Amino acid sequence: MKFKCLVAAIPSLAEINAAGRSQTFVHSSGPTCVDRAQAEVRRVDAFSEVGRACRSVYLVCATFSMLLGMLYYANVLGLPEHPILEPLKTITLTWFVLLSPPYFPMLARAAGIPIAYTWFEWPPLWHLVGLSGLVVLGYFAGYFQLSGLSVPFCVLGTAFYFTEVALRLPTASARTLVGGFLILVLLTGVVGGHVWNLHYNHPLYFEKILTDYSNKDVLFHSAISNLFNTFGFATTGTDGAASLNYHTGSHFIFAQLSNLLNITPLLFYQLGYMVIVVPLCVANILSLAISYRLYTLPPGGNFKSMNFGLAEWLLAFVAIAGLLPADLLEILGPASWLQLNAESYVTSITCCFILCSMALFHLASTRLAPFSAGRAGEYGLIFAVLPLGLSLTALLKISTAVMILVTIGFVFLRSALYRHVRYWIMVALCLAGIIAVLPLVAPRGALTFEFYPLAFSRTFAWPFVNVWKYLFLPAALVDLMFFYFWAGVFVLLSPRSLRVSSASDYFTQPQQIVVEIMIVLIAVSLFISQVWDIKELSSNGNIFWFISLQHWVGIALVLAIFPKDSMIRLINVGILELLRAAKSIINLPWIAVRMVRGHGFVKDPKERMLAAGRTRLRTPLQHTLTRQSWFWVTNVLPVVLVCITLSAVYNAFWFAKFHLDATLTVRNAFNVNYASLMDVKGNPIESARGGTDGSVEYKRQRGLLFRYLRERNPIESARGGTDESVEYKRQRLLLFRYLREMNHEARDQKRNTALFIPQQNNLYWTKTPDCGKLSFLAQALSGVAMLDGRPSLDCYFTEQKIQYYGFAAYGHRIGPQTLSASDEAQLCRYAEQKGFSKVVVLDEIDHRFLVRNFNCRTRS
Predict the structure, then answer these.
(1) How many angstroms separate the CA atoms of 248 and 236, rounded?
(2) Which element (helix H / strand E) includes 203?
(3) How far apart are CA 559 and CA 313, in angstroms?
C-alpha cells in the first residue's frame, strides 16, 4: 500500500519540484504524500470523465448542426443561385468549433506551455477561443479580400467529426443511436420551424425579398453587419454612415464569419446563425449542466454520472419544444417560450453559459484537488476572463450582462468575498467593463427609470383571450408562468439533489449557493419586469430579455439534477396507465363486472404498495396523506409526464408544418412571378455620359421597352396592374441583382460610394405594409450606405420604432424628399457633406431600371 502511494505521488512530486515548491511536501502540518496522490488521481479521473461527457455532447450537437444544414439545403434544392458549397462549408466549420476543444490543450502541452490552471482545461473555454480566432481570421479575410482561409478549418472539422464518430459508434447501442437520432430530428423540426418561417429568417430569403415577404428586423440586423465590413463601425447607413448606439457585438462577429466563409452577412443570418450559433448554444447549455453535476458530486461519487444519455436529451427536447401544445400557447399569448430567433440574445447567453460553467468547473476542480489549484489560475480567471467575458456579453446583449453582474454581486456578498482585496479588484474590473460598454450599446440620451407596478403587463397590453378572459388573467401573466417554470422546478428539486434532510443542513452546504443565485435571478427579473420600467433598455418588448435568462439556466440545471431513473420508470408507468385507460374505454362492461366481483380484492401493484403502507400508518391523517402522495406519484404524475412528452412531439410536427407552409408559400410566389426570369440576362439602362433623361441611350432603351411590350404582350398579374407585368418583375429582379453585385466591390470603393434611390422608384419603394424594411434592404444587399433612405411620410412608423431602428441618428423626416435624381450638383453636395466622393443613383423610368454614376471629385 505504501509502495502504491509513493508511485502515485511521483507525478505530483515531479510537478512540485519543477515549480520549486517541494518544501511543502515535508511540512508537518501540510498535506501528506497520500493526500496529494489521491487528490491528483481523483482530479485526473474527474477531468477524464468530464472531457468524455463533453465530447459526446459536442458530437451530438455537431450532428444537430448537420441536420440543420440539410434542412437549409432541402429548402433551396432546385432553385438557381443556391450552391451546395455554402452549407457544406458552414457545417464543417461548425464541426471545427464544436469538436476542436480537446486538441487545444494537447497542442499547448506539446508546445511546452504549462496549463495547470483549472479553468484552462474546461472545453467550453476553447469554444470561445476557437470562435474568437475564426473572427480574427475573418477580419483579415475581409480586409485583404481573401477567400480560401476557411478551407483548412473545414477540413479539420471534417476530420474531427468522423474521428469522433469512429470512436463513439462501436460502443453505442442501437437503441441509443436510433433514439438519439429521432430526438435530433424532432429538435431540428422545432428549431427550424421557429427560426425559419414566413415572418423572420428563411433559407429562401432573396426569394422572400422579391416576393415582398421579407422582414424589417432581419434586414435591419443584416444591414448593420454588412456595413461593419464597409466602415468598421456600427451604422444602418440609412442616410450616410452615422454611428449607431446598439448592442452590435453579434453583428460584428457575424460580419467577420461571413467574410471567412465568403458569403454575405444577409446569407449568414439565414444559414450561419442557425448552423453555427444555435448548436453552439445548445452545447454550452449542456456544458453548464455537466459542470454543475461535477460541482455537486458528493465525495466518493461516480464520475461516470457526468455522461448524458437519452433521458437527458429527451428532457432537453421537451424543454425547448414546450410543455403545452403550440396551438394552446399561441392562443394564450405570443409563442415566447422559444427565443432562438433572437441572434444577439442567443449569442450572449452562449457566452454567459461559458463563463458560468467555467466558474463552476474551477470551483469543482479546486474542491477535488485543493493542493494542485494554483493561485495564478484563480487570478487569471477573476482578473481577465470574467471581466473581459462580461464586457463581451454586454456588447452582445446588455440585459444578459446586467443579470450576470447581479449574480457576481450576490456571490460577492453572500460568500463574504469582500474580505479579500482580489475580489474587490474583480468587481471593480467587471463594473468598469460594463460602464465602458454602456455608451456603445445604449441609445442616445440618458437612461430613464420609472416606477410603475406591473410594468410588464402594461408593456404587453394583450387582450383577455378565450377562457382566460373569464378568469380575468392577462396573457402576459401566462408568459411569466412559462418564463419561471424551469427555474422553479430546479429550486424545488435542489434539496433532493443536494441530499439534505433539514433546512439547517441545506444552508450549510456550499453548493446551495447556486440555488440561491437562481432565486435571486427570479426576484431581480420580476422586479425589473413588474416594478421598474427601464425605458431605454426595455422599450418595444425588450423587457423579455431581462426575464428569460433564468429560463435557460433553469433548463440547464434541471438537466444536471434530473433523476432520470425515476423519471423513466414513471414514464413507463404513465404509458401503461394510458393503455389501461384506452382498454377501459373499449371494455367498459367488462370493467363494471370486474369491479363488482373484485370488491375488496387487491391485484394492482400500486394497491399492494398502498396496502403495505397502511400497515405502517399510525394516525388517520398520516394514512390520508400517504394515500394522496401515492395517488399523485403512481397515477397522475406518470400520465402528466407522458402527455408533456407527447405535447413536445406534437410541437415538433407543428413547427415543421409551420416551416413547410412558409417554404411552399415563398416557392410558389417565386415560381409564379420570377422563376422564368432567373435565366434572363440583361443590363440596366446606363448612359455613357451619366444617364440624363435626354440621352440618346435612354431614348433608345425606352423605344426598345415599348416595342417589347407591344410585341410580347406580357402576362399581367391577378391584380391587373401594369406595375406587376412580366417586364416590371424582370426589371425589379435586375435591380436587386445589381445591389447584390455591388457587395463584391472593394471595401475602399464601397466606403467612398453612396447609394441614392429616389422614392419615385417604384421598383424599390413598393407599397408594402412593412414599409420600414425598405430603408435597410439596399444596405443589407450591397454593403453601401444610402442617401436619404428614410421612410416616406406616409409610412407607418411610430416614434418608438424610429428610436429602436436607429432613425433618430439621422433626424426625422418633416417633408417630402428634396433630393433629385437628375440634379448631379445637388447630389454631390449632399454626398460630400456625408463624406462620400461617388454617388450611384438607381432610378426607374416607365418601369425601366436606370443606373447613373456620379464621380463628384472629377466633376468638381
Answers:
(1) 11
(2) none
(3) 9
Phi, psi of 445 (to 5 degrees): 100, 160
Residue predicted with more confidence, 333 or 496: 496
pLDDT, position 859: 64
Is-contact 408 400, C-beta < 8 A? no
Chain-centroid distance, C-alpha 159: 26
Distance, in Å, from the CA atom of 361 to the CA atom of 363, rounded to the nearest integer, reads 5
Region of poorest pLDDT, from 325-329, 619-623, 761-765: 619-623
Kindly state the DSSP code that residue 753 receives in the 8-state scheme: E
Strand pairing category for 838-845 and 449-451: unpaired
| 402 three-class SS | helix
Mean predicted confidence (pLDDT) in 439-461: 51
Whether the per-residue pLDDT at 587 is higher than 70: the answer is no
Instruction: Specify the higher pLDDT residue, 271 or 821.
Output: 271
Cross-strand partners of 534: 449
Q: What pLDDT, in 10s, does the model give residues 845-859?
A: 877 888 888 888 876
Question: Which DSSP string corresponds to 538-568?
Answer: HGGGGGGGGSSHHHHHHHHHHHHT--HHHHH
pLDDT exceeds cutoff 90 at 698: no
Cα–Cα distance, 743 to 227 (Å, whole number)? 10
Q: Mean pLDDT throughout 430-448?
A: 74
What would the mean pLDDT of 52-77 be, rounded to a whole number? 94
Distance in angstroms (rounded) separating the CA atoms of residues 306 and 451? 45
- Give the span between the Cα atoms of 281 and 552, in whole angstroms: 10
State how far the Cα of 517 lies from the Cα of 295, in Å rounded to an integer: 15
Cross-strand pairs, 786: 755
Name which residue leads in pLDDT, 403 or 19.
403
Who's near 730: CB < 8 A, 6+ residues apart? 677, 680, 682
Whether the Cβ atoms of residue 138 and residue 260 lie closer than 8 Å to each other: yes
| C-alpha grid cell, residue 371 | 493542493
Q: Bridge partners of 849?
A: 844
Please say whether the dihedral angle defined by the alpha carbons of residues 662, 645, 639 and 480, taken in this order, is positive or negative. negative
- Name the helix (H) or strand (E) containing 150: none
Half-sphere exposure of 595 (CA within 13 A, CB side): 7
> Cβ distance 841 to 675 under 8 Å?
no
* pTM for this model (two decimals): 0.84
**Residue of 275 and 820 predicted with greater confidence:** 275
Q: Could you please report the per-residue DSSP string of 454-478?
A: THHHHHS-PPP-TTHHHHT--HHHH
Query: What confidence score (pLDDT) does residue 499 get?
Result: 66
The single residue listed with the C-alpha cell 469512429 is 166
Residue 840 DSSP label: E
Helix axis angle for 278-295 and 123-143, nearest 10°, is 150
d(CA 420, CA 674): 68
In 3D space, the residue among 745, 756, 747 whose CA is nearest the CA of residue 838 turns out to be 756
State the chain's mean pLDDT as an integer: 76
Rounded Cα–Cα distance for residues 454 and 477 (Å): 10
69 half-sphere exposure, CB direction, 13 A CA radius = 25
**Counting Cβ atoms within 10 Å, is residue 514 exposed (0-12), middle (13-18) or buried (19+)?**
buried
H-helix segments, 296-420: 310-321, 326-332, 343-368, 375-380, 386-396, 398-414
Give the angle subtended at the CA of 80 by the CAs of 75 and 81, to the nearest 5°: 95
- Locate 708 and state its grid cell: 417589347
End-to-end CA distance of the chain: give it in Å, rounded: 93
Q: What is the DSSP string of 293-328?
A: HHHTPPTT--GGGGS--HHHHHHHHHHHH-SS-HHH
- Going from the C-alpha of 407 to that of each of 402, 506, 513, 567, the distances in angstroms are 9, 20, 11, 31
Q: pLDDT tens digit string along 178-226? A: 999 999 999 999 999 989 988 889 999 999 998 888 888 899 999 999 9
In contact, 154 and 261? CB cutoff 8 Å = no
Return the pLDDT at 615. Answer: 40
